[in-house]
Amino acid sequence: SPVDPANLLSPAASSSSLSQQEVATKIKQTHSLTVLLKHCSEQLLAEYVRHQGEPFSSPDFQPPAMAVPGLPSPSVPPEAWLALSDGKRLWHLAAAYAALPGLLGSVRRQQAELNPLASELHRQLEAAARQCRGLAGNLERIMGALGVTGPPPPSSSLGGPTTGAFLAKLGGYHVCRLHRDWAMRSHEALGLLRTKYPL
Amino acid sequence: YPAGRPDHIRDCSLMFFFFVFFFAADPAVISPQDPTLVIGSSLTATCSVNSDLHLKAEDLYWTLNGRRLPPESYKVLNGTTLSVALANLNGSRQQSGDNLVCHSRDGSILAGSCLYVGLPPEKPVNITCWSKNMKDLTCKWAPGTEGETYLHTNYTLKYKLRWYGRDNTCQEYRTAGQYSCHIPKDLALFTPYEIWVEASNRLGVAVSEVVMLDILDVVTTDPPADVTVSRVGDLEDQLSVRWSSPPALKDFLFQAKYQIQYRVEDSAEWKVVDDVGNQTSCRLAGLRPGTVYFVQVRCNPFGIYGSKKAGIWSDWSNPTAASTPRSDRVPGVCDPKSGEQNTTLRRELKQFFGWVKKHAYGCSNLSIKLYDQWRVWLQKSHKTRNQVGKDPSPIPYRGRRAGSSGPSGPGGTARTPPPPPTHSSAAGIGRNRLGR
């Protein structure tokens, strides 16, 4: 069972552990967080490619598809995404945001080696990981209040063999881009929730 | 993952999400991976495509930092391997390495390798150190290279007591600029240290000359505290500066010496007073009346523990401002010669009077002194500095009987001298002489 025993909002209990008002407030707050994430993730991607050099920084950069272990790509057709239930959308968001902080941390460690003087990039990567952790916590609380089961915690498969510098640049690019794509998706999903649970 | 997921989500994932796993093998491999090279050197790299991809060597091309490399530099080594020859490499464009990429014909990226092209570091130079209040040591240095090495260079400051073995490494960097380090504690006095800086990058290490010093020789203090600047009574050209010695060195036997610098509000030029000695006050003289001055004081812990050596000057104290009194506040003592000597008007008048004396007989009493007297009279009677433009009652003067017209009157602007009397019909001048 994916339930954390310390979580008071156990999905096993009824979904009215929080009042309607409290749930609606939490959703609104989380929606604001996704607005911030959308903005910051765009900035992070731009800052990241700037430091890797061409072809990463060129506007028509076409990276090869690449594995980012444990992080699904939200390449879902918009209609299909919208057709999912709130619970399913939240589930996928929770899975992504459980994995993103660790991945962003790995990218920061790699960039500390590749671009040791890019302090602004390092700062933004740390901030992004923090924001993702915050969003993950919020999502957990909302899901608990709505009686939705959460995903299992991500496997810590972030070790892996040390890659060459080019693959590290590429991997970091994918993490930053997925971070942005998921920010857009979460913003969309929370917007939908807000209309369903208005204050 | 798959085991725990409900059925409908598993179905959806096949359609909507794709979980991308590492390629069982990379599509292609570039060799060498991440080489480090000296500027100007050459490199031959190879790209070997995975045979599963059914790509031929002829289908590949290379780019370096996004720019396509010329096909003349390519060579097909076998069915699936293409090499490229790079010559006379420039320094890396970014510190994360130049991106050498192998593409298939449609442009997609198959593999990459980062090139690190630069120069080995040069010995760091100009190591200077100072100790604040004898508690710590901060050192700064300059990188040896004037130009770039193109590779990220790491600096390490090391130090050891001269006659004891152990090397220590400084930990707190960039406390006083990019090339600096701060040693906060555990420093011995009255004994020499050896200090040096090591610079290292991917191409090698360079070690600076060793600097030898005793902490006591490089002591500096905080700037003097409580700097106040005030007027000296009504004196319009003086200001009095007072301060207290920096608190931290009260316990150490030393004599401080001080320096003051001051400037007027709208000038960038500081004047320095050097011979302030040991006192904690000083009077500035020869200043301009009615002017705002900025004043700063700094301290040198001279003669620590009885040594004859000077220490290092502290930073200047924060500027303190004060203004000298305006000169019209001082009744009667106003000597027109002191403030006014340089005005254009006065200079021109002086010239005029000189000319008049030469060309108009009987104007011998005419001189700049008369103008000065007039100005003193002006100030006494009107109590204002400048009455230029106003028309006071005429001063009695002695020149008239001799036929001169006297001073040209209280004009605000200098007038051009009238033409010489022999030719002119200008009123007054020479009339009684020439006219009939």
From TrEMBL, chain A:
Q: Which GO terms describe its molecular function?
A: cytokine activity
SUPFAM superfamilies linked: 4-helical cytokines (SSF47266)
TM spans (from-to): none
Question: What keyword terms does UniProt attach to this protein?
Answer: Cytokine, Secreted
Where is it localised? Secreted
Q: Which GO terms describe its cellular component?
A: extracellular space
Q: Set out the biological process GO terms recorded for this chain's protein.
A: cell surface receptor signaling pathway
Q: Does the keyword Secreted apply?
A: yes
Q: What is its main location?
A: secreted
Q: Which PANTHER family match?
A: CARDIOTROPHIN-1 (PTHR21353:SF2), PTHR21353
Q: Would you identify the family this protein belongs to, as annotated?
A: Belongs to the IL-6 superfamily.
Protein name according to UniProt = Ciliary neurotrophic factor
State the species of origin. Answer: Chelydra serpentina
From TrEMBL, chain B:
Question: What does the record list as GO biological process?
Answer: negative regulation of neuron apoptotic process
Chain residue ranges for the region called Disordered: 317-341, 383-436
Annotated protein name in UniProt: Cytokine receptor-like factor 1
* PANTHER family assigned to the protein according to its UniProt record, in alphabetical order: CYTOKINE RECEPTOR (PTHR23037), FIBRONECTIN TYPE-III DOMAIN-CONTAINING PROTEIN (PTHR23037:SF35)
Principal cellular location given in the protein's record:
membrane
Q: How does it sit in the membrane?
A: Single-pass type I membrane protein
Q: Where in the cell is it found?
A: Membrane; Secreted
Asked if the Swiss-Prot or TrEMBL record annotates the protein with the keyword Ribonucleoprotein, the reply is: no
Q: Which residues cross the membrane?
A: 12-30
Per the record, what is one GO cellular component? CRLF-CLCF1 complex
Q: Which UniProt keywords apply?
A: Disulfide bond, Glycoprotein, Immunoglobulin domain, Membrane, Phosphoprotein, Receptor, Repeat, Secreted, Signal, Transmembrane, Transmembrane helix
Molecular function (GO) terms listed? cytokine receptor activity
- Domain Fibronectin type-III positions: 123-218, 223-327
Q: Which residues form the Ig-like domain?
A: 27-102
Which family does the record claim for this protein?
Answer: Belongs to the type I cytokine receptor family. Type 3 subfamily.
Give a yes or no for keyword Glycoprotein in this entry.
yes
InterPro entries given for it? FN3_dom (IPR003961), FN3_sf (IPR036116), Growth/epo_recpt_lig-bind (IPR015152), Ig-like_dom (IPR007110), Ig-like_dom_sf (IPR036179), Ig-like_fold (IPR013783), IgC2-like_lig-bd (IPR010457)
